[in-house]
Specification:
The chain is of the alpha+beta class and about 450 residues long. The chain contains 13 helices and 18 strands. Strand 16 and strand 17 form a beta hairpin. The radius of gyration is 27 Å and the shape is elongated.
C-alpha cells in the first residue's frame, strides 16, 4: 500500500477503502476506549484526525504518544462524526516510529519569531513556518514556469567567481590556502599559490554570466544563491540570499520594465490562487492588510516615474525623512515606501538614475548624467527589483569602467563580448526573499529563508 499525502485525503470527494499515512503527532487526547490523534505530514496546513481504539494491540503505547512523535497509520478514510473536518481515519494499525520526549521545544502557546530562529531546525513544524516554506517551494516552481512559458532558457551561473559584478567590494573570499601560514609576495598574500591561481570569491550576482548567454541564446534567466559580505543586521538584508535574474537580447529599458511588472503581477496572483490555504494564514494572523496589498500589486498599472520627478515629489512632500533627499542621492527604504504607500498607493517603477550611484554596466543616457536603470518598488517592502539596459557600446563601457575604477583586465571577456555581435540588451535582479516577504506579510528576511545567514549567525 502506497503512502497517501494528507493534502490528497482532505481533498477527496469520496472515502477511500484503505489508506496509509506517515507523519508527526500534533496533539493527542484520550477518551474512554479511544485516543484521538491529530497527524500532520507537512503536505498542507491542516491535520487529519486518527481514531485509535483500545482493540489495537499496542493501544497502551499509543496513549503514551507525545507531540512531535512520528507514526505510521493504516486504516479507513471515513466521514467525520465530529465537527471541524470532513474526513477522519479509523486506524487498523498505528506503528510508532519514534517517541518524542515530553520536553519537545514546540508547545501549544504561540512562540516568538526570535525564539523560533534559535531552533530553526524545528520551526518548519509550526503552522506559520510550514506554510511559509511551502509557499517558498511553490513560488520557486512558479518562477520557472513563468520564464519557461515565455520561452526563456535557464542558465546555471557560477557560484565561485573571480569578478565583482557590482563593483562594491562586499565579497566573501574563498581560499584553499593555510590561513595560519599564508604565502607572501611583496608583503601581500600570494594568491598565485591558491587553488585557482588568483583571488576567488562567492558571487554577488549571476548577471554578467547570464549576459554572455543572452548574447547567444536570446532570452535567458538564472535563479540561484548569491552572497554579500555586508555587515548589515536590518530586517531586509541577509548575507546569503537567492536572486532571479533574467537577461533579454534586443531589449530596451521600456521592455525591461514591462517584464518586471508582468513577473510580479504573475507571482502575486499565483500565490493567492495556488497557495490559498497557506496564504490565508498570513492574511489572518500576520498582516490583515495583506489581501488588499496583493490584490493592488497584482492588478494595478504600475506608476513609471523618472528619478528626478521622484526626488521632486519627496522634496515637496513635507515629510521628515531620516536620509537626505537630492539629485545624486540613492533612494532609501523610507523614500520608497512613502512613494508606494502614501503618495501613489500602488507599485512604482523609478528609472533614469544618476550614473554616479549605479554600477558600470548600465547604459549611459544621452544626457551623459543618468543611466537607463530602473527599480521596481512595492508597498511594505520598497525595492524588489533592480535592473537596467546594459551598456552594449564598447567605447562607452570602457570609459565607464575607468570612471568607476574597475580593472578592465579582470573583465576582458565581458568587454570582448561587445566586439562580437553586440546588441541592445537588458535585465534585472529580483530578490527572492523580498518577494516572499511581500506575499506573506512577514517583515523579517530571516523568517522566509530556511537557515538564515546574517552577521555573527551561522548556527545551523
Amino acid at each position: 500500500m502506497e503512502r497517501t499525502k494528507i493534502l490528497k485525503l482532505l481533498k477527496s470527494e469520496a472515502a477511500l477503502e484503505k489508506v496509509l499515512i506517515k507523519g508527526w503527532v500534533r496533539t493527542r487526547r484520550d477518551s474512554k476506549g479511544f485516543s484521538f490523534l491529530e497527524i500532520n505530514d507537512g503536505s498542507c496546513l491542516k491535520n487529519i484526525q486518527v481514531i485509535a481504539d483500545d482493540l489495537l494491540a499496542n493501544y497502551e503505547d499509543i496513549k503514551k504518544l507525545t507531540t512531535g512523535s512520528a507514526v505510521t497509520v493504516k486504516g479507513k478514510l471515513v466521514e467525520s462524526q465530529g465537527g471541524g473536518q470532513k474526513w477522519e481515519i479509523t486506524a487498523d494499525h498505528v506503528d510508532i516510529i519514534s517517541l518524542a520526549p515530553d520536553t519537545y521545544a514546540l508547545q501549544k502557546k504561540r512562540h516568538s519569531d526570535e525564539f523560533l530562529r534559535s531552533i530553526a531546525h524545528i520551526r518548519p513544524r509550526t503552522n506559520k513556518y510550514g506554510a511559509a516554506f511551502r509557499i517558498r517551494s511553490e513560488m520557486s516552481y512558479a518562477i520557472h514556469k513563468f520564464f519557461r512559458d515565455k520561452g526563456f532558457r535557464y542558465v546555471h551561473t557560477p557560484i565561485l567567481t573571480g569578478s565583482d559584478c557590482e563593483g562594491a567590494g562586499e565579497l566573501f573570499k574563498v581560499t584553499a590556502l593555510d590561513l595560519e601560514n599564508l604565502p607572501q609576495k611583496d608583503g601581500k598574500t600570494d594568491y598565485m599559490q591558491d587553488f585557482f591561481g588568483k583571488e576567488a570569491n562567492l558571487t554577488v550576482s549571476g548577471q554578467l554570466s547570464a549576459e554572455m548567454f543572452c548574447l547567444a541564446l536570446g532570452d535567458v534567466y538564472t535563479f540561484g544563491p548569491t552572497f554579500r559580505a555586508e555587515n548589515s543586521n536590518t530586517r531586509r538584508h541577509a548575507t546569503e540570499f537567492w536572486m532571479i535574474e533574467p537577461e533579454m537580447a534586443f531589449c530596451d529599458l521600456e521592455s525591461n520594465m514591462d517584464l518586471g511588472e508582468e513577473l510580479i503581477k504573475y507571482l502575486t496572483a499565483y500565490v493567492m490562487e495556488e497557495c490559498a490555504e497557506d496564504f490565508e494564514l498570513f492574511a489572518k494572523w500576520v498582516d490583515k492588510s495583506l489581501m488588499a496589498t496583493l490584490e493592488n500589486t497584482a492588478t494595478s498599472d504600475y506608476v513609471r516615474l523618472p528619478y528626478r520627478e521622484a526626488m521632486e515629489i519627496l522634496q515637496k512632500s513635507g515629510q521628515k525623512f531620516e536620509y537626505e533627499i537630492g539629485f545624486g542621492k540613492d533612494l532609501q527604504t523610507e523614500h520608497e515606501r512613502f512613494l508606494t504607500e502614501q503618495h501613489f498607493k500602488k507599485p512604482v517603477i523609478v528609472y533614469d538614475y544618476p550614473k554616479t550611484i549605479k554600477p558600470f554596466y548600465m547604459r549611459l543616457n544621452d544626457d551623459n548624467e543618468t543611466v537607463a536603470a530602473m527599480d521596481v518598488l512595492v508597498p511594505n517592502i520598497g525595492e524588489i527589483i533592480g535592473g537596467s539596459q546594459r551598456e552594449e557600446r564598447l567605447e562607452v563601457l570602457e570609459t565607464r569602467m575607468d570612471e568607476t575604477g574597475m580593472d578592465k583586465e579582470t573583465y576582458w571577456w565581458y568587454l570582448e563580448a561587445r566586439k562580437y555581435g553586440s546588441v541592445p540588451h537588458s535585465g534585472f535582479g529580483m530578490g527572492f526573499e523580498r518577494l516572499l516577504m511581500l506575499v506573506t506579510g512577514i517583515s523579517n528576511i530571516r523568517d522566509v529563508i530556511p537557515f538564515p545567514r546574517t552577521p555573527k549567525n551561522i548556527e545551523f
